[in-house]
Amino acid sequence: MSDPNGTAPTKSTPTKPTPLRGILAGGQRLLGPVLPRRWRADAAIVPVIRLTGVIGFASPLRPGITLAGFARALDRAFGIARIKAVALLINSPGGSAAQSHLIFRRIRQLAEEKNVPVIAAVEDVAASGGYMIACAADEIVCDPTSIVGSIGVIGASFGLQEAIRKLGIERRIYTAGDHKSMLDPFLPEKPEDVQRIKAIQEEIHRIFIDLVRTRRGERLTGPENTVFSGEYWTAPTALGHGLVDRIGDLRSHLRERYGDQVVTPLIAPERGLFGRRTPGVGGETFAWADRSIVDDVVSALETRAIWARYGL
Hints:
By secondary structure, the protein is α/β, with parallel strands linked by helices. Helices cover 38% and strands 11% of the residues. The chain has a domain at 41-151 and 217-308: 2-enoyl-CoA Hydratase, Chain A, domain 1, CATH 3.90.226. α2 runs parallel beside α3 (97-114). The longest helix is centred in the middle third of the chain and has 26 residues, at 191-216.
């Protein structure tokens, strides 16, 4: 019978399995019992990426979390065949807003491109930028003692103008641009400079709030003036506010969801000797001379201060 346009109907020809495909399938069934679990066709694979440390801050023995340092690990994790999900194991008190947002965006881009769900598990803390990264996940799991939240923006400095005056030191600074020396710690603080920095902080805070609202949606149940105040909580309280989805640990959650035989390969960023990134990753080279001891000490103190906000 012809169709209404008078053309003869076409018949679809069933696709026949190729000999090679049959051989591969047979070989996989035969070798299944001796193959590593992740190579088996029926394996549930969930690669795990551990993100630990302060975001954007780094010293030679304490590499921080940056997009440059984790981009390859993210690509490798999402590039594994037949994965059920990608898991993020997060332990971070925050840090750089820009690096946090860049990592968040890269995770979401890969998740949408590969159509793969993302699960975040919090260890000690996912606060500030650490929580922003956790929001890239479709589900957030926390230990009951985890610290979560701190949806805000902070900046800190020192006022040293009286100290150098007592030491008889005269501050000399030369600029092109009226506000180039804004908030210089060796100069008296100006109210207009404080207003400018607070306006920048409020703009970043609005971006953070919009991100959390978009990702958490109707799951957010806490009052906004509390949730977005910069306060942080233990996981049970955060669960009540809708900031996380469940209490537990990553291994138990994945076994419950994908079975006891779930495979969780750890995808680590590439590192060199003493924890430094390997040459060419993130634009760094293996050389101690490119940083001074003072820089490393200051970075370590800043890192310690950020962790200390959460009693860690």
